[in-house]
């Protein structure tokens, strides 16, 4: 607050007040709001950390090699593991990725490079955005009708199709975003060198956008790995390995970590409940690893 | 389209001073972006082995005219061209012509240095690979980098990302990339506008060296630069008389003659620095 005097007294220089004031309304409000944002941040972290602590405490207790190598226990049985569920989850997420990643990326190329303003692109973008909000159980219903009823059996591919349905929009939209981030001047440079549109995409746009695309793929994989609802009536569950006597038997009900947690957590047996906790811990660990890998990729971005 | 010729516009005198062989005969009658007439009535024959500068105030269409020569404007939606661009006798706008092939003979260096997000080596090898070059790739890359006066600075770090270089080095990398495939003409769209004076000077020296092998057409905002590097200069101006902002050629002559003895009133004013 400066006070400008009308007639400055000789000898006395009128200085503007530049000192910090602590009881001024504005600075009090500013301090309060700064504290408020800090508190809100801490509160936002509480759910994540309480879940993590709970998982490490209860799930970590049963951590052993057995979990990865043995089959799920039956009622009143001690010990056991869920190696088949881990394999099942990996296989189904793998199938889902094989289906959704190539389609998603190629569609994104079309959307970002070849016809960003075409009606086809607008329709595809709208569908993908709607699909992101699709309740995951509906993806399961769809795969049930499209795969389970047609093949006549619950199976890993049916689960994979359901998960692919959930992954596709994420892959497509993030890949499109990543490709749009490639500077126009880089594309111009390639065109100026005499590259065909295909060469521009393959040699410049895709390599440059790769970190961003991989981040999207990782996010989609992480989400798919944790989905339970779409697997409940597509892959069902199984107490046996996917590989019988050295033969891969894909067309049969398949175990997954998410469904194992769902099944075991409702059982009245201590062993099964502990097993569900351990499975939850492993699943979160899996998702964490995938997520962190995705973040590492995205950090390499230009 | 019949356009009233303004008194100060005498592009037909363009070839008056030229004696060399014309490699690109560029005649823009009307050039539209959608409904917007961007450039009109500009006849700029570019002579082989010389440096031709395009100068003029902002928005006078000098970059647009340059980008016509290798069909870079095809990327702009609504682009329409009336006139012809004859590259060694072939009209590059003829329906049977593939613009991709045109760009392999007429290379381009852009305003912003735009190396790809890949190693220095791969940046230079990019065009060679597009052309399925079968010979000694390393030798070719080294030769291009030497021609672009960049070899000594990068020879020990060819595997480093091209984006890790300084702005001036990036621009020389882009020049190396453009000349690796030995195009016949090199288009440069304000190649120094993003660079500091020292880097600018290096690029200008480089242009003089490249002139021995290539024909160069350069857009510049900087009069002094045109004076320093160009053999011939095309001065373009903006015509706002009909509502839009349409660029057209005012004067096209040998650089020295134009700067010492400009014929047109606008050129005189521009050369005196009365507007820029």
Can you describe what's shown?
The complex is a heterodimer of chains A (302) and B (276). In chain A, strands 1-2 form a two-stranded antiparallel sheet. Chain A is an all-alpha fold. Chain A is built from eleven helices and two strands. Chain A has helices spanning 25-59, 66-69, 83-114, 119-132, 136-151, 156-180, 184-192, 197-226, 229-232, 257-265, 270-299; strands spanning 243-244, 247-248. By secondary structure, chain B is an alpha/beta fold. Helix content of chain B is 32%, strand content 26%. Chain B has a ten-stranded mixed β-sheet, sandwiched between helices. In chain B, helix 3 (120-130) packs across helix 4 (137-147), helix 4 (137-147) crosses helix 6 (167-180) and helix 6 (167-180) packs parallel to helix 7 (197-210). The radius of gyration of chain B is 19 Å and the shape is globular.
Overview in brief:
The complex is a heterodimer of chains A (about 300) and B (about 280). Chain A is an all-alpha fold.
Order of helices and strands of chain B: EEEHEEHEHHHHEHEHEEHH
How many individual helices of chain A? 11
Q: Over all CA atoms, what is the radius of gyration of chain B?
A: 19 Å
What is the tally of beta strands of chain A? 2
| Low-confidence blocks of residues of chain A | none
Number of helices of chain B: 10
- Number of domain modules of chain A: 2
User: Largest beta sheet of chain B, briefly?
Assistant: 10 strands, mixed
Sketch the major β-sheet of chain A: 2 strands, antiparallel
* SS class of chain A: mainly alpha
How many DSSP-defined strands of chain B?
A: 10
Give the strand content of chain A. Answer: under 5%
Helix fraction of chain A? 55-70%
Distance between the termini of chain B: 30 Å
Q: What is the CATH domain class of the largest domain in chain A?
A: Mainly Alpha
Mean pLDDT of chain B: 86
CATH topology of the domain at 11-111 and 183-271 in chain B: Rossmann fold
| Distance between the first and last residues' Cα of chain A | 47 Å
Could you give me the name of the CATH homologous superfamily of the largest domain in chain A?
MetI-like
CATH class division of the domain at 11-111 and 183-271 in chain B: Alpha Beta
């Amino acid at each position: 607050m400066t006070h400008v005097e009308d007639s400055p007294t000789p000898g006395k220089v009128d200085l503007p007040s530049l000192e910090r004031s602590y009881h001024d309304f504005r600075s009090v409000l500013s301090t309060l709001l700064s504290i408020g944002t800090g508190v809100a941040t801490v509160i936002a972290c509480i759910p994540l950390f309480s879940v993590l602590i709970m998982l490490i405490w209860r799930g970590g207790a049963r951590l052993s090699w057995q979990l990865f190598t043995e089959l799920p226990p039956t009622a009143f049985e001690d010990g056991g593991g869920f190696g088949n569920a881990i394999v099942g989850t990996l296989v189904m997420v793998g199938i889902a990725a094989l289906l959704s990643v190539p389609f998603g990326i190629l569609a994104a190329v079309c959307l970002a490079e070849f016809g960003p303003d075409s009606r086809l692109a607008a329709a595809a973008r709208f569908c993908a955005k709607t699909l992101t909000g699709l309740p995951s159980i509906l993806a399961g219903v769809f795969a049930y009708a499209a795969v389970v009823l047609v093949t006549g059996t619950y199976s890993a591919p049916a689960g994979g199709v359901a998960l692919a349905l959930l992954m596709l929009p994420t892959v497509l939209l993030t890949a499109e975003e990543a490709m749009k981030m490639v500077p126009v001047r880089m594309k111009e440079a390639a065109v100026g060198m005499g590259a065909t549109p295909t060469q521009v995409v393959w040699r410049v746009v895709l390599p440059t956008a790769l970190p961003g695309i991989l981040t999207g793929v990782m996010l989609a994989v992480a989400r798919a790995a944790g989905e339970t609802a779409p697997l409940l009536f597509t892959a069902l569950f199984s107490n046996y390995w996917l590989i019988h006597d050295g033969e891969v038997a894909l067309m049969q009900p398949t175990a997954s970590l998410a469904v194992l947690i769902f099944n075991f957590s409702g059982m009245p047996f201590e062993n099964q409940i502990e097993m569900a906790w351990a499975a939850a811990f492993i699943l979160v660990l899996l998702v964490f690893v995938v997520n962190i890998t995705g973040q590492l990729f995205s950090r390499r971005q230009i | 389209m019949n356009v009233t010729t303004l008194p100060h516009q005498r592009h037909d005198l363009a070839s008056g001073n030229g004696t060399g062989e014309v490699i690109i005969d560029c005649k823009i009658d009307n050039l539209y972006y959608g409904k917007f007439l961007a450039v009109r009535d500009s006849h700029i024959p570019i002579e082989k082995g010389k440096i031709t500068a395009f100068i003029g105030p902002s928005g006078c269409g000098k970059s647009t005219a340059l980008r016509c020569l290798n069909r870079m404007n095809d990327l702009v939606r609504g682009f329409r061209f009336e006139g012809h661009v004859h590259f060694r006798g072939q009209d590059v706008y003829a329906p049977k012509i593939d613009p991709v092939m045109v760009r392999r003979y007429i290379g381009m260096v852009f305003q912003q240095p735009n190396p790809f997000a890949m190693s220095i080596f791969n940046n230079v090898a990019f065009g060679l690979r597009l052309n399925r070059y079968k010979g000694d790739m390393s030798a070719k890359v080294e030769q291009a980098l030497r021609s672009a006066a960049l070899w000594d600075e990068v020879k020990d770090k060819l595997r480093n990302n091209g984006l890790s270089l300084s702005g001036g080095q990036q621009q020389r990398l882009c020049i190396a990339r453009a000349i690796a495939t030995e195009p016949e003409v090199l288009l440069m769209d304000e190649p120094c506008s993003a660079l500091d004076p020292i880097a600018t000077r290096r690029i200008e020296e480089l242009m003089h060296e490249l002139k021995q092998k290539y024909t160069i057409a350069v857009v510049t905002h900087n009069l002094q630069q045109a004076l320093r590097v160009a053999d011939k200069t095309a001065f373009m101006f903006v015509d706002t008389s009909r509502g839009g902002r349409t660029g057209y050629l005012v004067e096209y002559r040998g650089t020295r003659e134009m700067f010492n003895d400009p014929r047109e009133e606008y050129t005189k004013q521009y050369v005196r620095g009365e507007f820029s």
